[in-house]
Fold this sequence. Notes:
The complex is a heterodimer of chains A (about 110) and B (about 120). Chain A has about 110 residues and is mainly β.
Amino acid sequence: QTVVTQEPSFSVSPGGTVTLTCGLSSGSVSTSYYPSWYQQTPGQSPRTLIYSTNTRSSGVPDRFSGSILGNKAALTITGAQADDESDYYCVLYMGSGIWVFGGGTKLTVL
Amino acid sequence: QVQLVESGGGLVKPGGSLRLSCAASGFTFSDYYMSWIRQAPGKGLEWVSYISSSGNTIYYADSVKGRFTISRDNAKNSLYLQMNSLRAEDTAVYYCARGGVGYSMDVWGQGTTVTVSS
């Protein structure tokens, strides 16, 4: 069974830079998995941040960027702000209409 | 504006059934594939099911295969999820999401809550 891995939690200082990662329990993440990233605050629906590895969704600030770092997909927040404190989820497209979400990363800005 | 509105959630006993609906507006529904995603209380997101724009191709997560049925009515701009043989572990907020560029989910509904409990 495919498991998508994310750091359970991360902390960043206001104005700082943080990189969240998205890996596979077995194998490497590549652009072929079309990694996408979603932000969710408590009680709200997820919001699309990044799709196709590194394309920002409409209206997403450019302090959010996506990439492949080594064998993982990565979401980098540059110049973190207080309202970036959220849960962040990656999802990988496994092919044949199947997606697998990571467990999510709870980001604290303090 | 582009909008997805889920409905049909509620409290149901184990073994029971429920049908969720997702009403789409603000875009040409028949042009897009759709998915259902769920989130158990305090847990992460879990992809549940996919349906192609025409409805001809359907996939399910192993956790719901054989119990849930996804469907759509393009004339009514609506997506559905028929849930049978419900279990306690199906308790979650269920979101419908529009398929976006690059296999993303670019528009999400506000979610509807399903609680399976005796």
